[in-house]
Amino acid sequence: MKKNVYQYILSIADNSLILGQRLGELCGHGPNLETDIALTNISLDLLGQTRSYFQYAALLAGDDKTEDDIAFIRIEREYRSILLVEQPNTHFGYVIARQFLFDVYHLLFMEKLQFSKDETLSAIAKKGIKEVSYHERFSSDWVKRLGDGTEVSKLKMQEAINDLWRYTDEMFHVSASDKAMISEGIGVDVVALKERYYAKVTEVLSDAMLEVPEGKYFQKGGKEGIHTEHMGYILSDLQYMQRSYPNMKW
Amino acid sequence: MSEENIKNLEEIFEARIARDEKIEPKDWMPEKYRKTHIRQMSQHAHSEIIGMLPEGNWITRAPSLRRKVALLAKVQDEAGHGLYLYSACETLGISRDELYDQLHSGKAKYSSIFNYPTVSWADMGAVGWLVDGAAIINQVPLCNTSFGPYARAMVRVCKEESFHQRQGFEIMLSLCRGSKEQKAMAQDALNRWWWPSLMMLGPVDAESVHTEQSMKWKLKRKTNDELRQQFIDQTVPQADLLGITVPDPDLKWNEETGHYDFGEIDWDEFWQVVKGHGPCNKERLSARVNAWDEGKWVRDAAMAHAEKKELNKLKEVV
Ligand SMILES: [Fe+2]
Ligand SMILES: [Fe+2]
Ligand SMILES: [Fe+2]
Question: I need a surface site. Which of A75, A85, A230, B161 has the fewest CB within 10 A?
């Protein structure tokens, strides 16, 4: 049971960790100072959530495991984040599209997680909802701004949405261990979120005068630890210090 | 306005400053005062945002989650400092875009310290401890400078800089209490950052062009050499506490003066970096220029969208 909860926490927290890490790459390189600061805020929120989840997971794991052991000392196959969050910062349109496609899901997810029978997860979700609804507003506003801005921005925003669309379906996959968590009332039944997710995404895209992609082919694997080629590079940065100088305090 | 009138106004103006009154953007001010302030405040703003780059370099590689979050927040604070300083500068009738143009074209300067590379995690400690430390010494006196918006911005900025300085020292402390490798990393960072940090307090007084005027306007209250001495006197005991060695064989406590004596600073290196030939001048500037150029379509879109929305609102009213 504990082991299932532990794995379940990773599958939630790894999304926040990897997306927070991706956004961290952008700090100092935004299109203007205000946007730079806002994206850093989102990164800080996500990494803050990651820490709460991993501190709890470390407690469950026992053996003096720490949040950092969990964050840094795993092999790629053991990271359970979805493929969407590891996609690169190709251009600002991709940053916004990735954020938006994740935020809409993340908010729906947190709204359910707050009713988890696990008190700690419920508390983390309650605290996170405020943050995540701000993220969702921020990214939705930018989708609209870019979709309805100039010819160029419309093209770029549409390109990013089209490209990342294939990673959306994975959010609604349920793994065997998730199933156990759902039936215990601890986990969130993500299948039930799917319809509302696509409805919300469609609403924002039409407000933005963008097209909803018709792609019917989707990618998956992150939840099982099979990632895209980007992941290894993310982990090389993320783990660099811990791998070069093992077993030290920082 | 006649010459005599202007002379009168200038006298009143200087008297106000002498009485410690604040000058506000709408007040009359000599053209030279305006220009000097635009130059100094924009240099300061540019230093804040260029300063994000060397530390930003370690965000993805920070060794723990706690350190990663703290570093991100620190670099974000620097963006905030840039933001208030640009806004304060804009009150003098120059736009942020013009200021950026001056930076990107190489016309405007920024603090040379940021042209040094950050090559290890210990540099995050050394930069916070020494660079933010030297910045505080430069900036605390500016909390009482004559130009109101600058003085107020400095009050906010200095509070955060001292937090950064403590955070940097604390990174060094963890390293120095850690393994042999960690302590060596800390020593190496001190070796590389010590002299550039001393240079950060500006050229020796004899070669500093702006000092006298700046003193009168309270843009400066102590000379570069005084500030440097203050920095050394304050920092050496901290290095002792860490148990690492300041890389200056001539450094010695002087009972008579009550200050540390220190060795010769390599001013050739200083001027080389100032003139654009430091280890990272090219990289720092091109990172800013790239971010700005690549962000153009985004800023254009935001502007176009805002205009459309405004237009729609007008239509509704009509
Ligand atoms: Fe700063
Ligand atoms: Fe500063
Ligand atoms: Fe700082």
Answer: A75
